[in-house]
Amino acid sequence: MNEEQRLEGQQSVVTKDNKQEKDYSKYFQSVYMPPSLKDAKKRGKEEVKYHNDFSISEEFRGLGEGKKFYIRTYGCQMNEHDTEVMAGIFSALGYVATDTKEAADVILLNTCAIRENAEDKVFGELGHLKHLKREKPDLLIGVCGCMSQEESVVNKILKSHQHVDMIFGTHNIHRLPNILKDAYMAKAMVVEVWSKEGDVVENLPKVRRGNIKAWVNIMYGCDKFCTYCIVPYTRGKERSRRPEEIIQEVRHLAAQGYQEVTLLGQNVNAYGKDLEDMKYGLGDLMDELRKIDIPRIRFTTSHPRDFDDHLIEVLSKKGNLVEHIHLPVQSGSTDVLKIMARKYTREQFLELVRKIKAAIPDVALTTDIIVGYPNETREQFEETISLFKEVGFEGAYTFIYSPREGTPAAKMNDNVPMEEKKRRLQELNALVNEYSANALKQYEGQVLEVLVDGESKKNPDILAGYTRKNKLVNFKGPKEIIGKRVLVKVTEVKTWHINGEFVEEVATIGVN
Ligand code: SAH
Ligand code: SF4
Ligand code: F3S
């Protein structure tokens, strides 16, 4: 769905008792567009449209004057970054941010649909907000993000959470001003979720969290359709931003003094495949970005299948390209990988790791793993354990498989009891901890370059920062070094972090 298709589309309004009424749409300018997983799966052939003309129209000026907004973000960095964009739009409308729900005039829940427990948290929060809404009837409550793209979620909210004022999806956050205005005027719940997309909207305002590290989208969506995963439905088809837009954004961040950028996409290795007028991939992009005077550049997330030799070659040039790669493997069993539709075998994954290590001998590799896939046997799980050891991953996010309605895996019969899945997760986690601690041991007595993020969450007298390989380092030091790269001597190594002593600031004479 793009802007034109939207305008041609059906519009109506859903009243809070869930009855469709015919003609209010024109009067309220409200839009009802139910999400459809079926439509979301259809990948349109229509060209990606690039919009460079985002601006806040006159009719919305002052909409937020004297009002406060609060956004709670769940899920991945993509959502965190969408929150920054929505914060930018709110600010452009005159709203001011608040960090307490009680003080807010508008509350948005930017949701994640990746696993059932992510959704449970949101429904729990919606329950709490009901009381707040009762005390403060003028409060606007909105649900956005990936859960809004699911039919079942929207139906559940329409039915059981009528204190929600607006639901909108991941493809139309640029329409936030319209949606807010509709929500103020309508007596009904405003629902606007585009199931299909086609657009890349540039120059949206952003209020970034912090001025040290920044996220930069390089592409949107995912076309991989791993059989367990909801993301291709909630985020739509793969579409890349133009390289010149990305390069300009990173240059601008460098000029503003940012020290690190993380390039974002669900499968960043597919970057550029959809750019019809040029042959350009992630390797080409990284090769240009490394010339920009910004100390660190990361990217997430990689898909092993699309990780090509050119990218490896570019990464081996290092400089500001850090030697840490997050490379989700999901399983060590070729049979399970096949049912997951990951499109690589155990052997192909190991071969990729071999190539990466040959080019970047000190690379730190981390991964994502799912245990308890439907019908996963004990032997198949053990193959995951053995692959983990063979690669020598330094960290991993580990998950028990969670069925997602509408995905192929959700229809599979499953003979693995939950108790067994939990045991496998525990066993894997013990291994992950052991390997993380071992990886940190190599740093004993060394001096590391740390980008100082700020005060440690647990103790404001301690500073916290990360190394190029994304290892957390805690140490005492003067507050003036926050936001700078410094040298820290390692004094103690724990399972997931390092303790150290501040040595000195890193001299900044260019990065390459
Ligand atoms: N695009 C990224 C990951 C996105 S989701 C990639 O392909 O690597 C982050 C992680 O959540 C995935 O890597 C996977 O390990 C996990 N995940 C996704 N769907 C899941 C599900 N249905 N149940 C359990 N874990 C899941
Ligand atoms: Fe989901 Fe697979 Fe796409 Fe990652 S690559 S977002 S796991 S479908
Ligand atoms: Fe969750 Fe959507 Fe990210 S499902 S992990 S917030 S892309």
UniProtKB/TrEMBL annotation:
[4Fe-4S] cluster 2 binds at residues 222, 226, 229. It catalyses: N(6)-dimethylallyladenosine(37) in tRNA + (sulfur carrier)-SH + AH2 + 2 S-adenosyl-L-methionine = 2-methylsulfanyl-N(6)-dimethylallyladenosine(37) in tRNA + (sulfur carrier)-H + 5'-deoxyadenosine + L-methionine + A + S-adenosyl-L-homocysteine + 2 H(+). It is found in: Cytoplasm. Belongs to the methylthiotransferase family. MiaB subfamily. Its EC number is 2.8.4.3. It comes from Bacillus coahuilensis p1.1.43. GO terms for cellular component: cytosol. Residues 208-438 form the Radical SAM core domain. This is tRNA-2-methylthio-N(6)-dimethylallyladenosine synthase. The keyword Ubl conjugation does not apply. Monomer. Keywords: 4Fe-4S, Cytoplasm, Iron, Iron-sulfur, Metal-binding, S-adenosyl-L-methionine, Transferase, tRNA processing. Binds 2 [4Fe-4S] clusters. One cluster is coordinated with 3 cysteines and an exchangeable S-adenosyl-L-methionine. Residues 1-21 are annotated as: Disordered. [4Fe-4S] cluster 1 binds at residues 76, 112, 146. It is an enzyme of class 2 (transferase). GO terms for molecular function: 4 iron, 4 sulfur cluster binding; metal ion binding; tRNA-2-methylthio-N(6)-dimethylallyladenosine(37) synthase activity.
